[in-house]
Amino acid sequence: MRDRLFAWQRPLLKTELAALGATAPDGPLLGVRVADEAEKHAVIAERPECCLTTPHFDGYPAVLVQLDVVPLGVLDELVTDSRRARAGPKLLKAFDEGR
Fold first, then answer.
1. What is the DSSP code string of 12-34?
2. Burial of residue 19 (number of CB atoms within 10 Å: 0-12, 13-18, 19+)
3. Which one of 1, 24, 80, 92 is least enclosed by Cβ atoms within 10 Å?
4. Is the backbone of residue 59 left (phi > 0), alpha (psi -120 to 50) or beta?
5. Residue whose C-alpha is closest to residue 67's, from 31, 43, 35
6. Is 67 in contact with 28 (CB distance < 8 Å)?
7. HSE of 29 in the Cβ direction (CA atoms, 13 Å)?
8. Whole-prediction pTM value?
9. Is residue 1 predicted with pLDDT exceeding 60?
10. Where are the beta strands (DSSP E) in 1-99?
11. Chain-wide mean pLDDT for the chain?
12. Number of C-beta neighbours around residue 26 at 10 A
């Protein structure tokens, strides 16, 4: 079975804090997998008030979500899309049938 991690809470690393400087958020963050790099950049462009990336995530399909400012509907959408992108066929079918 391959890795199915789709969301995780994490602090910013020291190197990320240095890279972001004064723009570094100080609240809790949730890492959320996205389908690919194109989606990552689209999510950040659409939701710059609550979604970001750091050099640590260069080449990795994930965004960081600021939990203290993200609207709940946006968070629900991000986590649901992430789960769907990471689910295997059986789980995806069960998820779709349950909605």
1. PPHHHHHHHGGG---S-EEEEE-
2. middle
3. 1
4. left
5. 31
6. yes
7. 18
8. 0.88
9. no
10. 7-9, 29-33, 51-52, 62-66
11. 92
12. 9
